[in-house]
Specification:
about 210 residues; alpha/beta; two-stranded antiparallel ribbon; globular
Length: about 210
């Protein structure tokens, strides 16, 4: 797991905070589906409604491809939030696009992968957010099972959990992210009260027990 560029990471984080794609509420935390209490909620779909932010993300995802995955032959998005970002990148690079469902379609061909399946095709996966990496790596597993060669994955944002780093390492998947939680805290002087910083830093150290 690596951050593409520290300067870009801070810029992306600031933009996501500005448009409230990332919200911070350490005094009134969110509850995730896992049951974890969290001072942060991230919904990068909102970036699609803001041309400046959308363009910033698209241009830097393209730079990730050009630096790390030059021999890419197709782009895949992880449903659902990775689909629009993946389409933008694929269109700009003039590459085929497909996407991976979280589970097979309930009717028709019952596809998990939507798009042309080409055995041995070198593919880069696009994700909007990485937490533990479970759902993201499930998409990689499905692509590999269908004969694709997965060069790696790129994401807009990651919380930077150690479990995610280990999961990607164990799966042999290179992950490059535009921004992460550490750069979020470093870039957010206009959005975070100094009195809230200790709680935000503590959550990052032990999110599974924070707030209990």
């Amino acid at each position: 797991m690596e951050i593409f560029n520290v300067s870009i990471a801070k810029t992306v984080a600031a933009q996501l905070l500005k448009i409230e794609a990332i919200r911070l509420k350490p005094q009134s935390p969110f509850t995730w589906a896992s049951g974890w209490k969290s001072p942060i909620y991230c919904d990068n779909r909102l970036s699609l409604s803001y041309p400046e932010t959308r363009r910033l993300i698209k241009e830097n995802l393209i730079k990730v491809v050009q630096r790390h995955f030059l021999n890419v032959e197709a782009i895949a998005g992880v449903a659902t939030a990775g689909i629009p970002q993946g389409v933008l990148v694929a269109e700009e690079l003039d590459l085929p696009f497909l996407y991976v469902r979280s589970k097979p379609k309930g009717h028709g061909m019952q596809n998990t992968i939507e798009g042309k399946i080409t055995q041995g095709q070198k593919i880069v996966v696009v994700e909007d957010l990485v937490s533990t990496g479970g759902s993201s790596l499930k998409a990689v597993e499905d692509l590999r099972h269908n004969g694709f060669e997965v060069l790696g994955m790129m994401a807009i944002f990651t919380y930077g959990f150690e479990v995610a780093r280990k999961n990607f390492e164990d799966a042999g998947v290179k992950l490059v992210c535009l921004s992460d939680y550490d750069n979020l805290l470093a870039a957010s002087d206009d959005y975070i009260k100094p009195t809230d910083l200790p709680a935000l830093q503590e959550w990052r150290r032990a999110p599974e027990v924070w707030g209990k």
